[in-house]
Amino acid sequence: MGIDSLPIPVQNVTDRTSNPFGMRPPFDRTPPGDRTAVFGYGDANADFHLIGDYPGRHGGAETGVPFTGTDSGRALQDVFRAVGFVSGPPAKPICENLFCSYIHMCRLPDGRTPTDEEYDDLERYFDAELRAINAHILMPVGEQATDHVLREYTTQRHRIDLDMAALHATEIRGRGFLIVPIREPTEWEDTEREALVARLEAILGRDYRQTKGVATTVG
User: Fold this and answer.
1) 60 pairs with which residues across the strands?
2) C-alpha angle with apex 63: 59 to 69, nearest 5 degrees?
3) Strand, coil or helix: what is 179?
4) What is the four-CA torsion angle of 19, 11, 14, 35, rounded to 10 degrees?
5) Which of 6, 97, 170, 176 has its CA 20 to 30 A from that of 133?
6) Looking at the keywords, is 4Fe-4S present (predicted)?
7) Strand 137-140 relative to strand 48-52, pairing
8) In whole angstroms, what is the distance from residue 23 CA to residue 36 CA?
């Protein structure tokens, strides 16, 4: 079943960790035998949604799991283990209250960067999955994912300078979401891991589930 035949919102399928909503990539441009896509992975009822760019940048080509097999993925797993969202083996982590996905799930030859048209091709698939997860906190990683999330899920993109060092581990109110941008982990300075851990712990320490109601009126 492709996403075209699924109702929106999609009912959560909580017993499936990988691709819980049965997404099918709309195109396959990889060599025969290669993995066609790195689908969303984790807790389908999560309050926190980690959003990356594409498999060639943030990993998963070998494992099928977002944010695995790369320095970026290892750095992020370390953060989410510290706050209690991730346990188990690095290549196939156990996620609790965390869902991970990419704005461009499909693999491309040699891990090349998607074109603007290819990003556009997958936008509705990502959007459908994001709304099915219905998380409270969106955490885009890197400039491309952050730009997309701010444009599509807030009214503030025109007022925000896309300076990832300045935006890292801050809070931005969106249309029904709280956005916590994350700088590309391979570019982190000495204090940026600790800043992200501290931000997540602060959010967990308050009634963040009220975020959706608050953000709807502010974003």
Assistant:
1) none
2) 40
3) strand
4) 0
5) 170
6) yes
7) parallel
8) 12
Domains along the chain?
3-218 (3.40.470.10)
Q: What is the pTM of this model?
A: 0.87
User: Residues with Cβ < 8 Å from 208, sequence gap 6 or more?
Assistant: 47, 136, 137, 178
The answer to whether residues 103 and 130 touch, using CB atoms and an 8 Å cutoff, is no
